[in-house]
Amino acid sequence: MIWQWWLSLLYALAVVVAGDLYEVLGVSKRATDREIKKAYRALSRQYHPDKNPGNEDAHNKFIEIGNAYEVLSDKEQRAKYDRYGEAGLKGQHHQDPMDIFSHFFSGGFGGFNRGRQRGPDATTEMYVSLSDIYKGRVIEINVDLQGICDECDGSGSADGKTDTCPKCRGQGSILTEHQIAPGIVQRVQYPCDKCNGKGSVIAHPCKQCKGSRVMRERRPYNVFIDAGAPRSWNYVLEGEADQSPDWQAGDLIVHLTQSPKDHYGYRRRGANLFRKEMLSSKQAQNGGWQREITRLDLDSTITLSRKKGVSVQNGEIEVIEDEGMPIQNGSGHGKLYIEYVVIPQHSGSHDEL
Ligand SMILES: [Zn+2]
Ligand SMILES: [Zn+2]
Asked: What is the three-class DSSP state of 67?
């Protein structure tokens, strides 16, 4: 199990928590419970190990976030921490950050509880430069999505109370009878319009979401781009689409495409790279030249050269092994194909020949 190694890592790290707990959550010392909750909600999702595979920094951060929330969300612990700092928490046994996380998100919202109807997937588009695909990197993105209202925790109620609908008396539907002819009664049942068939109403709707239980929110994510990733692919963030108390959130699908711009003169086919290099007819005929071309890491160069007396034909192709794109999840690189284009001499010069 992947959890086992990192659980042991967790406990090892839980001991060495450092840094100000408020800073960890990015809130002020006067933050309200709700602000602390909100910060934890956003950060814990961003740094969740499931979303940051193999990223140790993110794992450590996730642990810190969990520990900070554990202390600051507890009145007594927070008061001790405010008064005595870390020392006030000595001997305190930290909970497993994964438990804190699942407990937080098991309150009937978020994408982490199973068994409810699944909501729709969400997609977002992103372009990635060829150089980024060459090197591999993490890109931070922000996506506007529907989230559970953090003011009322998805209840829609300002005071947390819901009342039985007075119109349908909690039935959710209303039964009417019409006499359509003497002795003939038609019964019609329809959903209650006061409570939309729910059977309950909220006397004091939440001010933030106006009783809708959801709100728009901007969520940060890390998108991992493998070195050598294909020209077009989907990065799936499970359970991160629009949230609703009524469903289990679908997946957020980040559709990544290699940008048609920023190619630095390279064209790509699979793991191979292609580029054209111009030579003057003098260089092509006589040889004796050297040139550096930028490698796609944008940090080093590839040397092309011909010794004196070595000529190059127009259209000649030089194949350089291991200078193509990295092989995704493998080792080595594809090939680089250089096509030489010899620039003809100026037309005026023909007369001199
Ligand atoms: Zn009703
Ligand atoms: Zn609300």
From this structure: helix
Could you tell me the pTM of the whole model?
0.64
* Residue 247 CA to ligand 1 centre (angstroms): 22
- Give the sign of the dihedral formed by CA 347, CA 348, CA 350, CA 353: negative
Highest mean predicted confidence (pLDDT) among 53-57, 196-200, 323-327: 323-327
Backbone angles phi, psi at 4, to 5 degrees: -60, -45
**What is the C-alpha to C-alpha distance for residues 239 and 243, in angstroms, rounded to an integer?**
9
Give me the residue spans of the domains in the chain.
1-104, 163-201, 267-352
Relative to the alpha carbon of 173, which ligand is closest? 1
Tell me which residue of 23, 43, 41 sits closest to 33, measured CA to CA: 41
Which tens digits make up the pLDDT trace of 122-164?
Answer: 999 999 999 999 999 989 899 999 998 988 888 899 987 888 9
- Tell me what pLDDT residue 12 has: 44
Ligand 2 ion local residues (Cβ < 5 A): 149, 151-152, 206, 208-209
Ligand at shortest distance from the CA of 153: 2
Percentages (nearest 5) of helix, strand, coil residues in the chain: 25, 30, 40
Other CB atoms closer than 10 Å to residue 174's CB: what's the count? 17
pLDDT at 195 exceeding the cut of 60: yes
Classify domain 267-352 at the CATH superfamily level. Answer: Urease metallochaperone UreE, N-terminal domain (2.60.260.20)
The reply to whether 267-352 shares the fold of 1-104 is no
Please give the distance, rounded to the nearest whole angstrom, from the Cα atom of residue 121 to the centre of ligand 1: 31
Domain at 1-104, CATH from 3.10.20.740, 3.30.70.120, 1.10.8.60, 1.10.287.110: 1.10.287.110
